[in-house]
Each structure stands twice: as C-alpha cells, then as structure tokens.
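Take a look at this chain, tokens included, and explain the fold to me:
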Amino acid sequence: METQAAVLSHTAHPRPYTGSRPLRLETVQLDEPGPGELLVAIDAAGVCHSDLSVVDGTRRRPTPMALGHEATGTVKAVGDFVTDVAEGARVVLIFVPSCGLCGQCTGGRPAQCRNGARANAEGSLLSGARRLQHAGVSLHHHLGVSGFARHAVVDRRSAVVIDDDVPAPIAAMFGCAVLTGVGAVINTADVRPGESTVVIGLGGVGLAAVLGARLAHAHPIIALDPVPAKRDLALELGATIALDPADTAALADLLPTGAEVTIEAAGRIPALELAWSLTRPGGRTVSVGLPDPSQRLALPVTDLIGQGRTLLGSYLGDAVPQRDIPRYLALWRAGKLPVELLLTGTRPLAEINEALEDLASGQVVRQVLLP
C-alpha cells in the first residue's frame, strides 16, 4: 500500500531546521504485515529529543530512515500468528521490542532485550525485516516504530493494547516520555516515601520524572532547569521547589548533605556531574538522558566506594511495557498522573521540521503530531 512518512535521507543537518528541512514527507510503499506483525494507522506521534539526536547526528542510525518512535494508533490488519490483537484495537507503540526469550527478557528487563537492541541498531523490525520502500530503495525503521507517518507496520511485541477512552495525543506520550520518566523514579531508583529527590532537566522525560516522584511520595522534590516556564510547570506538576541549576547557593542551603535520589534527564555530561555532586552518601544517582556516545564521565572513585553511592542507568525507565502502561493509564484516569500537562500542543505532520526546531530551541516540552 501507499502511505506517507517523514523520511530522513542523511544526518547531521544544521539548524535552523525550518531552513535545512531534514525530514521530508514522502509517499512511500508499505508492505502488508508479515507473520507476527501489525499494520497500524498512526493517530498521534510525539516529538522527542531522541528524534532530534538522530537528525543532528548525535545518535548514529542507518539512513535513509522513516523517523519517529513515540506513537499511538489503530490496528488496521494483523499478520499470521497474531491471535491476541484484533483489527480496530488501539495501541501504544514501544521503541524497544522485546523477544521474550533472551536472558534480559527472561530476567525481567525487557528494555535491555538483546534482540531488540540489535534490530534497533540495524533499523529493522524484530524479525530482521524492513517493510518500507521509497523510490525503489528500502527504508530503515526507527526503533521499530517509524511513527512520523500515516501508517506503520510494527512487530506485535512493539505494541501495547489500550482502551478507547484515552485521547490520542495523551496516549502517544505513554510510549516514551511517561514510561521513561516515571519508570526512572519508580522502577530504577525505587524512590520511597519521604526520600528527597532532585530532577535535572525538565523536558518531557524530566517532567514525567517529577510526576513519578510525586506519585512515589518523595519529599522534597527539587526540579532544576534554566528555563523559567519549565520550572513553573514543574511546580504545577508537584515539585516542592524549582530552581535554575546555576543557583548553587540555594541548592547548598536546600541540600546541605545532598539528596537521597537524583535523576539526570538532560542528556549532558555537566548535568550528570551536577546530579552526582548533589547526591548524598548512600544515595542513588540515575542517568536517563542520552548524551553523545563519544562523551565520557569522570568521577572520584572514592565517592562511589567510600560513600556507598550508586550510579544507575535507566533506559525506557526499566519498564515492562505490557505491565506498566496499563498501570500508568489507570493512574492517569484516577487523576494521579496528569500527563496532559506535559503537552505543549499539537500540530500537523507536515510541520515536523518546525516542531524539531522548536524542540531544539529548548522552549517546548512535548509536541504531538497528528497525521
């Protein structure tokens, strides 16, 4: 079938993206779903820094690629051997497909699935197949989703079935921002009631971490970002106090012995160094942001050992998506996880480059594209 998708022909495009226009909305050929796969009509797709990092070359992915990894849609057809999903079902798409068989999956950490990681690095579906072509050339899939499109073929294991009551722009954010940010607090850091928690970097993932900290009854919750509007939003979401990270005097007064948990969601080494410096002896530092792979972190080893501190990486919030998305949606329905406050706005898919530029400017939280 023919559909439309936002195609990235090569990486390392210069800003402003409204001028260089790295993504082009193309008419592409999309194969029918193969065994164990779904054809999904995309209803909404969030624009995330992980998309931006492919465009600017920070995260190296094979090209040409149909971009987009945070999306929701409606199942239009199912491949052979799919017995638990019907046409018409609504799904949230997951950017780490899990095979269910490798050591990471059977050990309860599907976000670290070896076969999913291989497929994502190769730009294929979990089976190794590619279902997209443009002008006779095979297109790579972005993290098994390729959600900046009108339709996508995905592996069944890249989809979580949801109820019909969730608006599409809200549902899309559960595929990355919510799973990653809330999960970093609940699953990775295992924040307990009354634990002091700092969140550094208030994009979609960082603000979702603030929501997760409130959900875990952390106290105080200290949110750090240089953008005043994001600090204001963090307070609305439940932060106890929000500061510019450059305000070192205020941080020293608030945390004379450091915080029990710090969450770094900025994707910058200085932010991770700050998170480490704000963690008290015996505390936990969690890194969620994805910096350039060439960057290195240097820490005093005596702090790690002598102070009994822990440094944790968190990918996809250490989520088990088939378990966690229904749980988080139930909390959203109950008013305990107001994810809608993360939504800066919606815009048509044709404005993808404008959305990328607004994201790169640092002034928006979550924009959602509507095909």
Q: What stands out?
A: The first helix runs from residue 17 to 20. The chain has two domains: 2-176+318-370, 190-313. The first strand starts at residue 2 and ends at 8.
